[in-house]
Amino acid sequence: MIRSSRTDAVVTIELNRADKRNALNADMLSGLSEAFGEAVDGGARAIVLAGRGPVFSAGADLSGPVYDLGFLDSLMALMEKIESVPVPVLAAVNGAAIGAGLQLAMAADLRVLTSGTQVAIPAAKLGVAVDEWTIRRLVTLVGAGQARNILLGCETLSAERGLELGFTNRIGDLAAAQAWAAEISELAPLTLAHYKLVLNAEAREEPAPERIAAMQRCWTSEDMKEARAARAAKRKPVFHGR
């Protein structure tokens, strides 16, 4: 489900589940974590994260055990690992990055999106919630107003609008991301590692216990169960706030 390749000092890690639109399950999270560890241990100076097929990732695989808090914990641990590796990570995003797929792209240091790509976090439509790191990171990348649109309004963001806001660093395909990564891999590694630590420090502020509890309450709520039932019945969910 995960494919890694190397060209000189650049390692490309690809989500390789195109038949499922690269929807994330527990095995993929584990494979990604292992692939990032191997890339760093192998001396990579830059890493490109991409998705094979027409979309980067459609998000969590809702047909699997993704509603368990254990899956959420694994996803959060993976995002922290991607963010904390000491080399620059570039996300090459094509087609769409939804929910957990967008969270992976946000954990990267730089994002290269193909023209027309759409990103979104539709958690409020599913009766679940994203973690506080994701919210903080989104505010940093797109601004508080646009973050509210994406989170509270479940709006999508285009690659082009993202470029205006600073979410998208460049418009281009996987080859463009790999070429940029090759340039970056020739820069001073210690300088880049220092920059990453400073740039990422704010989003890692420890959330208050009551805010953690509020997020977890969503994942165990009746509303979440209603959303699952509605999805199975192909109808619109009716939420009651419990």
Q: What does this molecule look like?
A:
The protein is α/β, with parallel strands linked by helices. The protein has 2 domains: 2-174, 2-enoyl-CoA Hydratase, Chain A, domain 1; 205-233, no CATH class. The chain is built from 11 helices and 9 strands. The chain has helices at 26-41, 69-84, 100-107, 123-126, 132-142, 144-152, 159-165, 174-184, 189-200, 209-219, 222-233, and strands spanning 2-7, 10-15, 46-51, 89-93, 96-98, 110-113, 118-120, 157-158, 170-171. Strands 1-2-3-4-6-9 form a 6-stranded mixed β-sheet, sandwiched between helices. The chain has a 3-stranded mixed β-sheet with strand order 5-7-8. Strand 2, helix 1 and strand 3 form a beta-alpha-beta unit. The longest helix is centred in the first third of the chain and has 16 residues, at 26-41. The N and C termini lie far apart (36 Å).
